[in-house]
Write a structure and sequence with these properties.
Layout (H helix, E strand, L loop, with lengths): L13 E5 L2 E4 L4 E4 L2 H4 L8 H11 L12 H14 L4 E6 L2 H16 L3 E5 L8 H5 L16 E4 L4 H8 L4 E6 L13 H13 L3 E5 L23 E4 L10 E6 L17 H16 L2 H16 L7 E5 L2 E5 L5 H9 L3 E2 L8 E4 L7 H15 L3
Parallel strand pairs: 3-13, 5-6, 5-7, 7-8, 8-9
Antiparallel strand pairs: 1-2, 2-3, 4-10, 9-10, 11-12, 12-14
Helix pairs in contact: 2-8, 3-8, 6-7, 9-11
């Protein structure tokens, strides 16, 4: 049987990894400044993370949500402690798409409405409602296009007001820093105005923090830069440092009922321990502060390279803007300099998503590699 061929793959086969280093089957070492789409938050094979998972494997790896699992409660409490999201409840699932799917479903239950307002270049996943709210027609099948979604531009409050006043909207979903779309952000003024309009019209405001959450932008959640409070927050990626996990933080005003949501694997014992280990390392190593500190150093280095036209993003969720498409540059960085980076919907943007515990020395290595390839272009 062949694999269903949906991924254009680089000719690299990782077999081990530690920290920000990935090693392939030819024993070549790579600097990982992409983290598998912002998944590796505390570095590959962090010793505390490995130890916690190994210890749990010796106890119990999985049972479904038909029985008590105190680890879920421990995770919820630790999440409150670090994020300061004090009046939310937690639903655990398996991915960012599943988190957003459940968030949109909850919004529709809560309002008894069905239209969604999303934003140009937003990405929220590949499942039914989540992909419908994603601004990419190429990955929306006819079955997805049955969903009622209106796409708007960031910061156009007039257009937003017109749409929300039609009184058929269940949810507004947005990324405070867009990932795949290219690191665009709403202004604080716009985010605060849409929060107020959502409250006025009883519309659920969903903060998609799947990529930007867990300290990546220098706050625990990216929306916290804007002094707003969403009704629902979705999380995944850096949450498990590679273990498949997702979650939905739900304001207490949205009431649960048995069977309303459900998952077989979500919140299993191994997943909870992986998530707890990540939060413990973030706390113990002060990684949110480090993300902000490394951002300052990164910006200083970027400012010395004239080919970089703009640096987008916050913390360690960054994009380098050039005046040419970066696909070839990414290949050269991988095959000549042995550095992993990311692309975006904006083909002129090189995405940078390293682990939150990177150092100035590793940033120096990255910029040395980048400059070496820019000289050859």
């Amino acid at each position: 049987m062949n694999l269903f061929d949906v991924y254009p793959l680089y000719n690299v086969t990782p077999v081990s990894a530690k920290g920000s280093q990935v090693i392939d089957d030819k024993v070549q070492e790579y600097l990982d400044f992409y983290g598998g789409h912002a998944v590796i938050s505390i570095g590959h094979s962090h010793p505390h993370y490995v130890r916690r998972i190994k210890e749990q494997l010796d106890k119990i790896a999985f049972y479904s949500n038909a029985v008590q699992n105190p680890l879920q409660g421990e995770l919820a409490e630790k999440l409150v402690q670090l994020s300061n999201c004090t009046d939310y409840n937690l639903f655990l699932c398996n991915s960012g798409a599943e988190a957003n799917e459940n968030a949109l479903k909850l919004a529709s239950f809560y309002t008894n409405k069905s239209r969604v307002i999303a934003f140009n270049n937003g990405f929220h996943g590949r499942t039914s409602a989540a992909v419908a709210a994603t601004d990419n027609t190429a990955i929306n099948a006819p079955i997805n296009k049955q969903q009622k979604v209106t796409f708007l531009a960031f910061n156009d409050i007039e257009a937003f007001t017109i749409e929300i006043e039609k009184d058929d909207v269940c949810a507004v979903i947005l990324e405070a820093v867009q990932g795949v779309g290219g690191l665009d952000e709403p202004t604080t003024e716009f985010y605060q105005k849409i929060e107020a309009l959502c409250k006025k019209h009883n519309v659920v405001l969903i903060a998609d923090e799947v990529q930007s959450g867990y300290g990546r932008t220098g706050e625990f959640f990216a929306y916290q830069h804007h002094n707003i409070k969403p009704d629902i927050v979705t999380i995944a990626k850096g949450m498990g440092n590679g273990f498949p996990v997702g979650g939905v933080l739900i304001q207490e005003k949205i009431k649960a009922s048995y069977g309303m949501l459900g998952t077989t694997f979500g919140g299993n014992h191994l997943a909870c321990v992986a998530c707890l280990a990540v939060l413990e390392v973030i706390e113990q190593e002060d990684l949110i502060r480090n993300a902000a500190k490394m951002n300052s150093y990164f910006l200083q280095k970027a400012a010395t390279i004239p080919q970089i036209k703009k640096v987008k993003g916050r913390g360690l969720m960054l994009g380098l803007q050039f005046d040419f498409e970066v696909g070839e540059l990414r290949k050269k960085l991988i095959y000549n300099q042995f550095v992993f980076t990311g692309g975006a919907k904006d083909k002129t943007l090189l995405r940078i998503l390293p682990a939150l515990n990177i150092t100035t020395a590793l940033i120096d290595v990255f910029f040395d590699a980048l400059q070496a390839e820019l000289k050859e272009l």
